Amino acid sequence: MAQCKLRSLYGLYPYKSSMIGLEALSDPSLDWDIVETIGKGTYGKVYKVNNRKDGSQAAVKVLDPINDVDEEIEAEYTILRSLSNHPNVVKFFGMFYKTDNLSGGQLWLVLELCNGGSVTELAKGLLMRSKHMEEPVIAYILCGALLGLQHLHNNRIIHRDVKGNNILLTTDGGVKLVDFGKWTTF
């Protein structure tokens, strides 16, 4: 595949990519309104957003302009774009670029909203109330996570960062794998 020279993901340094061209990404503010902060990750914040056109809700990972994470962002984008069609992998609604002359811009990954929180949050919440997760619940969550991992493995992908914080729950009982920045192939 031919390599094209593009702007860096954040306009900070030259970047070679065959997949991501920021010039082609639309401005997220045309489609999405931020409602509230719902989390903070290694490279930025996660917000609940509303779609301006149809009122649907989603989560958006707004990535800070850090020049050493381009490969992880591209890796996550690759997985989300091609493998989020499985019920146990978070759905991907698109990638956007918001130009900001002050910070160099923001990359937005718009994902399925998983309002049930992470497995880690669930376990900690139960412990704070002196309770524990029942075995059928553990089995259900593990089954969902393993089905998601099987989907990745069937496509020759290894997640490499499976942990409670990267297994999210939906309010309707869904179990979703997230955070694909460290994947590799086999």
From TrEMBL:
UniProt: ATP binding residues: 61
Lineage: superkingdom: Eukaryota
PANTHER family: AGAP011099-PA, MYOSIN-IIIB
Name this protein carries in UniProt: Protein kinase domain-containing protein
Gene3D superfamilies from the UniProt entry: Phosphorylase Kinase, domain 1, Transferase(Phosphotransferase) domain 1
Entry keyword tRNA-binding: no
A molecular-function term among this protein's GO annotations: actin binding
UniProt keyword annotations, A-Z: Actin-binding, ATP-binding, Cell projection, Cytoplasm, Cytoskeleton, Kinase, Nucleotide-binding, Repeat, Serine/threonine-protein kinase, Transferase
Transmembrane segments: none
GO BP field: positive regulation of filopodium assembly; regulation of actin filament length; sensory perception of sound
